[in-house]
Amino acid sequence: MSRLVASADVGGTFIDVVVADFRNGATRIAKVLHRKGNQGPDIIRAITALVTEMGHGIDAVETLVVGTTVVTNALLEAKLARTALVTTKGFRDVMEIARMHRPSSYDLHKRRSRVVIERELRHEIDERLDHHGNVLTVLDPAQLQDLVVEIKAQQVDAVAVSLLYSFLDPAHEHAIADALSELGVPVSLSSDVLPVFREYERTVATALNAATNPVMGDFLEGLARIEAQGAARTFVMSSAGGSMTFSEARRFPIKCAMSGPAGGAVGAQAFARFHGLQSLLTLDVGGTSTDIAMLREGRIPSTNERVIGGYPVAVPSAEIETIGAGGGSLASVDRAGRLMVGPESAGSMPGPVGYSLGGSQPTVTDAHLALHRLGERSMLKGEFVLDRAAAIAAIETEIAKPLNVTWQRAAHGILELANANMARAVRMMSIERGIDPRTSRLLAFGGAGALHAVDVARQLKIPRVMVPFYCGVFSAFGILSVEASYDTQRTWRRPLGSVTMADIRSVTEEMKAQLEARACEDHSSTPELRHLWMLEMRYIGQSYAIAVELAVFSAEGLEASRQEFLREHMARYGHASPTDAVEIINLRLTTTVCGEHIRDHQPPAGPTVAPCAQATREVWFSPEAPMTSRVFSRNDLPDGWTQSGPLIIEQLDSVTVIGPGDVVEVIPRTRALAITLDK
């Protein structure tokens, strides 16, 4: 009896789809071009084709988990729904005032992103709580009805409600939500979205949640058709590394802002666990962007200080650095005669010039193709034929001639600049956090990750690069392994030295009961649950906090959390005081439904005979002259196979480039590539 589980990672250029049978190990993968607005039908079509290959119908798929950039793209492109805000009298302009952070200290033309909600759509209501949650001004029902009439006349698509100190007592927000229910539009409450102090971040997060609710609703409607065709349960990947039910994703779309990249981090965590790696840097290069994460002690750090499209997104998410450098990043020469790469991308349409879909501006992919690092039939088993001559011509016209260099030098310049941008982001995730990247391994995945990894590692003196077997769809494999989860947080400011277990349990039991109720509501039978507690701690008087785990509810557990805070503070800031007073400011809880998915799925066994090169081609590893390089198929490589570069390894979903003198080895069982760089 088969048990099929599917996942889809909706990226900027491609949609990656994986179907796996966890009972017999059978796996099928696919990459399809991302057609905006057609994600649902495209995912259905790809899954149907894969399960048919496996001898099943789509009704054999028990679970589907989808990672999406739909919320991220809405923020980056500022394509937000018309949204109204209701806030406490006197706080109408809190989003406009913001923080005293300048987008750029030296760029005189740089402007802040536009305010999420325009001033005429921001409404005040006369109510007030004090900082202990006591009511100072009672909500006036007559004024509330007038407010509903006013908002109704503005014909908004969503409403955000963010009242001062509502995280201490949400009663006023709930009353406003009840009154607004007659409008028939989504209403987001700050006491649900981000029930913590700092009114600016809380208000912006709530406004973004409301403003992205309609676009997430449209996306989920497309996925609902998948369930209608037979998939038993469909989930959406969350930014924090778990999966969300449709109802949770519809209610909290802002928690899906880093949905796709989080899947790669989860996959990397499973990879590190299987290979016994404590420290691992990840390089996920897609068609539009590059995502970098740093795993320490096998864990994915989390952050609530993310900025997307200029907007602070303060909900907890996996700590991932994203830059606008990918295979589709456009290359150009600016008015000052400087070569520029990204952040603008050709996307899937018109795509790189070599795709022959109408693109005219050269991209990073075109540079790989021109230099023959990527062959004309390297992609999708040769079914997606690339036009190398067109890529060379575009680089010659748009880059080489304006710079008065050869097309080979221009193409190398494009890759060098893209690699430098990636290396800078890796430094930010490692060196700027007190970690020497030379002591880590670099795990490369994404459609273009293995094309760039060796060059990026060489810049950073990282000695070894690892490439998982399904590297081009690795994020989809990470998404495949996640479990359904729920999260909440609450401001609870207490000096650590005065906290008793009775104090903390009085709050945590209520938080746990809230998430357990949501989990039971979404699952037909009573699920087995796992709870993860995090404490946001800081020195008294500090502005920023560090989140550490509370593993055991005891005085010893609190002391262990304090020691972890000191270690993390030393790693991040270079100093820590064991005697200065520490305080807790926020409590976080993640509740996971155990057994929803299975982890550590490994590829099928490889061949046992030595492989033969499929071909050779002239690859330009330098602008001066090409080198004859052997080309191998990844599927032909047996466990333990070792070879020195230069060589190219091709597979359905990606291409790996091994430079001259570098040594590659196939790791037994996982069939991952381990590339040792030439010193």
Note down, in words, how this protein is organized.
This protein is an alpha+beta fold and 679 residues long. Among the domains are: 4-74 and 216-256, ATPase, nucleotide binding domain (Nucleotidyltransferase, domain 5); 81-211, Dna Topoisomerase Vi A Subunit, Chain: A, domain 2 (3-Layer(aba) Sandwich), CATH 3.40.1360; 485-593, Dna Ligase, domain 1 (2-Layer Sandwich). 31% of the residues lie in helices and 27% in strands. The chain contains 17 helices and 34 strands. The protein has an eight-stranded mixed sheet, sandwiched between helices. The chain has a six-stranded mixed sheet with strand order 3-2-1-4-11-12, with helices on both faces. Strands 6-5-9-10 form a four-stranded parallel sheet, with helices on both faces. A hairpin with a 5-residue loop joins strand 20 (329-333) and strand 21. Helix 10 (259-275) packs across helix 15 (474-480). The protein is globular and about 80 Å long.
